[in-house]
Design a protein that fits this description.
Layout: H1 2-21, H2 23-31, H3 37-48, E1 56-60, H4 66-74, E2 79-83, E3 95-97, H5 104-114, E4 119-124, H6 134-155, E5 156-167, H7 172-180, E6 183-189, E7 200-208
Parallel strand pairs: 1-2, 1-4, 2-3, 4-5
Antiparallel strand pairs: 5-7, 6-7
The structure holds S-adenosylmethionine.
S-adenosylmethionine binds at residues 34-35, 37, 60-67, 83-86, 100-102, 125-127, 144.
Length: 212
Amino acid sequence: MGKNKSRRSGSSDRWLKRQRRDVFTRQAAELGRLSRAHFKLQQLDERFGLLKPRMKVLELGAAPGGWTNYLEQRVIGGLLIVCDPRPIAAAAQTVVIEGVYGEKETDQEIMEHLEGRTLDLVLSDMAPNMTGIRTADQARSMDLVELAADAASRWLKPGGNLVVKIFQGEGVEAWVANTRKRFGTVKMVKPKASRAESREVYAVAQEFLVID
Ligand SMILES: C[S@@+](CC[C@H](N)C(=O)[O-])C[C@H]1O[C@@H](n2cnc3c(N)ncnc32)[C@H](O)[C@@H]1O
């Protein structure tokens, strides 16, 4: 019994130490932000100049709302549509679509709110529920990347931008090569606020090209 107890406290000690070390988690708590996710988007915005007041933005995979919270402060006077099947903490002026992107009903709702308008930016932090089976998880995460790219193709204005979370692995190189044909630039970035041990990176695709 004594042995089990010390093993348990050893792992919780390590967890506690990591949390304390983790400056971004600490900062998020201090500032009352929903999560470290907020800082990832802030770092991408500061580096690429993604956001301006009055922009029209679609955010996919928005729950619990860390990015949404940041976007609400940056696109004042614009249109912000956020989508996730899970609850999203959002301000009253934000259009919240509680649905799975890729399903017909969700698609229709987005189009109703767009009323024929195009977007300046499509963001996706969508991630699948991981099963632990690496090839299956990678395939499902690439499906979500494709869905985000599809949203961009349909609704971005010429010159618009796409930011999408990608897990490094099978399919990424081919996706990047293909996306380079449709955008002026595509950069793969790991924000400092993203955990070093995670395979997560973000593709920042800028200057959407209209190809007939
Ligand atoms: C890492 S979390 C997003 C965190 C969010 N950016 C934030 O700042 O709070 C990933 C989210 O993707 C959502 N998701 C996964 N597949 C989706 C889909 N097809 N449509 C919409 N959301 C999806 C999940 O429900 C989950 O809430």
